[in-house]
Amino acid sequence: MDLNPRIPTGPIEKAWDDTKFNMKLVNPANKRKYHVIVVGTGLAGGACAASLGELGYNVTAFCFQDSPRRAHSIAAQGGINAAKNYRNDGDSVYRLFYDTLKGGDFRAREHNVYRLAQVSVNIIDQCVAQGVPFAREYGGTLANRSFGGAQVSRTFYARGQTGQQLLIGAYQALERQVATGQVTMIPRTEMLDLIVIDGKARGIVTRNLITGKMDVHIADAVVLGTGGYGNVFYLSTNAKGSNVTANWRAYKRGAAFANPCYTQIHPTCIPVSGEYQSKLTLMSESLRNDGRIWVPKAQHDKRAPHEIPDSERDYYLERLYPSYGKLSPRDISSRAAKRVCDEGRGVGETGLGVYLDFRDSIQRLGEDTIRERYGNLFEIYDRITGEDPYKSPMRIFPAVHYTMGGLWVDYHLMSTIPGLFVLGEANFSDHGANRLGASALMQGLADGYFVAPYTITNYLAGNKAESVSTDHPEARAALANAEGMTKRLMGIKGKKTVTHFHRELGKTIWDYCGMSRTEAGLKTAIGKIGELKEEFWKNVTVPGSGEDLNQQLENAARVADFIELGELMCIDALDRKESCGGHFREEYQTSEGEAQRDDENYAYVAAWEYKGAGAAPALNKEPLTFDYVKPAQRSYK
Amino acid sequence: MKLTLNVWRQTGPTAPGKMVRYEMPDVNPDMSFLEMLDVLNEGLIQKGDSPIVFEHDCREGICGSCGFMIDGKAHGGFPKTTVCQLHMRHYKDGDELFLEPWRATAFPIVKDLMVNRSAFDRIIQAGGFISVPTGSAVDGNAIAIPKSNSDRAMDAAQCIGCGACVASCPNASASLFTGAKIAHLNLLPQGQPEKLDRALHMVTTMNEEMFGSCTNLRECEATCPKGISIENIAIMNRHFVEASFAHRPTASEAGAG
Ligand SMILES: Cc1cc2nc3c(=O)[nH]c(=O)nc-3n(C[C@H](O)[C@H](O)[C@H](O)COP(=O)(O)OP(=O)(O)OC[C@H]3O[C@@H](n4cnc5c(N)ncnc54)[C@H](O)[C@@H]3O)c2cc1C
Ligand code: FES
């Protein structure tokens, strides 16, 4: 497999400008002759589809919800980073670049990260112009807050609904293009296969979720902005519909899957309460600005939190990491929470929880200020747990939140299949082994608004618009493949529900490929997943038919893909005999229990290549070089 | 606790529908309403019956996917709560509940509790945007916006497009949805150039989509899970009237040379 990352040469500060200058262009009159398919209309796909439409391309966009306005991006709470330095506190493009690379534990590509930091400033401008009501100061200028992993205040936000407001901005830009006829939006439709003709991505197979009808769509390029795969864990903070199917089917058609084991466990989520639980709810990391995290010093201390005096509390993050304290990065904070709970100092009925306490800030700033900053988050907490966080501290515990891994892409965001571009959380590109807070929104919009429209143009300019028939043998084969899978799923008529298998899978991945991993554990997991897969294909039950609306069938196909992905995650985690970011191998830690990287042997991107059903996937390595930031043991002390 | 559910079952848009009764012997008060339906559905699947179709995604009250009537009230009628964020501790042992889809001509039923809300997208297409192509923006701080304006715009912009306003309105009016979008954009300096076009076109499309008209009953405001104020409807009406009197549609751009 040819893994050419197409990293530009020359100084990093000029790399993106030079690349843009050297790109081929498409004459305005010719743009409409090119057809581009965009699958997924979250921040990344929505921004891209709108921008391509504005440029004059003929775009067809798909999403599985009833409207693009409902993509999972809508749920992002805390904010979006940008190197504006409006606070005059020492921020710069270089610092954002540095923080992101270090936050990712030196497992990302320098040039991509630099470009991300560079275009971050354009994103804020673009969104403000669209009418995104970012928080403002009394003087009318934009407000900022701080997030984990940074010592400057560079996060822009719209109350606790930043993702919602950014997505609505992108959605409105998209609908404007729909109104002009430049973009055709096809909601309630799921991509089930990728069509590759003469080695190039030329279309997709979709299923209409209302009628069950399968269709072939042909294009000159295909863009995936289909989101992350956190739901492989069953319980996660992702929307229930988030899935890996589009990416997985592309993987099976030849797109390499990079670093699947890099998953992010977010430190501040509401703990699990029962077996029926269908998802987990995040409490934005921004709460850590004003909340302090602690557990009792003594084990199994069952006193109510207000009965525990300060001297008997362990503010462990502030103790362990004095300079970043409660704003330490996510991977570090999550593991610290796990450790104190493992020591028997966790709180709540299950002992799997730590306190996030606002007592001191309420005393200092008053309840009103806290309400203005976090009112909606406090409400969510109250609603779910029935407890009032203004009166007693929140109980929180880490939960799966984000996946840094994804389809491998080069500097142009193109996968190993020419003509297949992958944006947003669906790709692996910018966050290395750990993503900093407020950087996913930034990356999704950077990819969609400011990178892909250029790189896709460059690709199209080098490829004549040549139509292929929907009857092309490759198209028919892909269609038959998708139809065959539906038939198989409908035909099993077993005894166990799809959710049963999904839960089982989630438990295995959480236990063995979650917050900490070991060689033995990962091997056990691979065995268990293999058995689960076999049982799934013998014993799953999918009611109804394939020819109409069937939510169980949609789920069954997604879970089938998650099972296979789960196995690849464990294979990847097993291969990576080091600890870095979200990937913590117990065998590789410092004497203080921190992640121990092995730069000599593992400074590479692991790009896995599908080798057919039943065959072991092949590992391709993209070496990572660091010319600007010297990798060091990450320290937040 | 024990509950009895009566759920509207309808296999397709034109099929006849009916209420079907289900007994729920063991409901945990900490479950959300949708988690309770998950449990019911798991049981139905095990028995070989078809599970109840309802729409959902985020389960955090923000995507606007979920929504149905519980005892005639949109999302169950609790203040600022979507049905995915409604927990069973609000009900008592022995309660009997009636679940129905949103009822409105503009929202045809798809299946069971799921309806088609694409009319909302078409209202946005008519003018619910600011025409600013990617790349053409000035610096974010170049336009100072008084905090109070930006806060009011944000209050309106919080709409999640769930459709509860339409479902709870006896006239099935979409005025709160449309008004919230017009207010969000028209309250901001960036929205001024298209202010009148926006009001004119969005209101016209709303009417064409077969939503009813607003007669100030305020049911929408009371059930809106985001607490959006009907003040936004007043803004919409004002700008619509202004547009109808004063406005001349923009001229065609084609020119010589
Ligand atoms: C609770 C929560 C809070 C967060 N808060 C923050 C934050 O404060 N700051 C931050 O930077 N990041 C945050 N994140 C992360 C961030 O929200 C996501 O990473 C980001 O929004 C992903 O955007 P996306 O466009 O890549 O994908 P998504 O928004 O997930 O969109 C995926 C799109 O693909 C479509 N799709 C998927 N599969 C298919 C298919 N097979 N066929 C057709 N369509 C398909 C979907 O319909 C959807 O339109 C948060 C995440 C969560 C879970
Ligand atoms: S499921 Fe998203 S708002 Fe209820």
Set down the secondary structure blueprint.
The complex is a heterodimer of chains A (637) and B (257).
Chain A: H1 12-22, H2 28-31, E1 35-39, H3 43-55, E2 58-62, E3 80-81, H4 93-103, H5 110-130, E4 155-156, H6 162-180, E5 183-186, E6 189-197, E7 200-208, E8 214-218, E9 221-224, H7 245-252, E10 257-258, E11 263-269, E12 292-296, E13 313-314, H8 316-320, H9 330-342, E14 354-357, H10 359-365, H11 367-385, E15 394-403, E16 406-407, E17 420-422, H12 440-461, H13 473-492, H14 498-513, H15 519-539, H16 551-575, H17 599-602, E18 604-609, E19 618-623
Parallel strand pairs in A: 1-2, 1-9, 2-5, 9-17
Antiparallel strand pairs in A: 3-4, 6-7, 7-8, 10-16, 10-18, 11-15, 12-13, 12-14, 14-15, 18-19
Helix pairs in contact in A: 1-5, 3-6, 3-12, 4-5, 5-12, 10-11, 14-15, 14-16, 15-16
Chain B: E1 3-9, E2 18-24, H1 33-46, E3 69-70, E4 73-74, E5 96-100, E6 109-111, E7 114-115, H2 118-125, H3 147-157, H4 164-168, H5 175-186, H6 195-208, H7 219-223, H8 231-246
Parallel strand pairs in B: 1-5
Antiparallel strand pairs in B: 1-2, 3-4, 3-5, 6-7
Structure description:
The complex is a heterodimer of chains A (637) and B (257). In chain A, the strands form five sheets. Chain A has a five-stranded parallel beta sheet with strand order 5-2-1-9-17. In chain A, strand 1, helix 3 (43-55) and strand 2 (58-62) form a beta-alpha-beta unit. Chain A is built from 17 helices and 19 strands. With 637 residues, chain A is of the alpha+beta class. The model of chain A has no long low-confidence stretch (mean pLDDT 95). The longest helix of chain A is centred in the last third of the chain and has 25 residues, at 551-575. In chain A, 38% of the residues lie in helices and 14% in strands. Chain B is of the alpha+beta class. Chain B has two domains: 3-111, Beta-grasp domain (Ubiquitin-like (UB roll)); 117-246, Alpha-helical ferredoxin (Fumarate Reductase Iron-sulfur Protein, Chain B, domain 2), CATH 1.10.1060.10. Chain B is 33% helix and 11% strand. The mean pLDDT of chain B is 95. The interface between A and B is large, with 78 and 79 residues. The structure holds flavin-adenine dinucleotide and FE2/S2 (inorganic) cluster. Flavin-adenine dinucleotide (FAD) is lined by residues 39-45, 62-65, 71-73, 75-80, 162-163, 190-191, 225-228, 237-238, 242-243, 245-246, 282, 401-402, 424-426, 438-441, 444 of chain A.
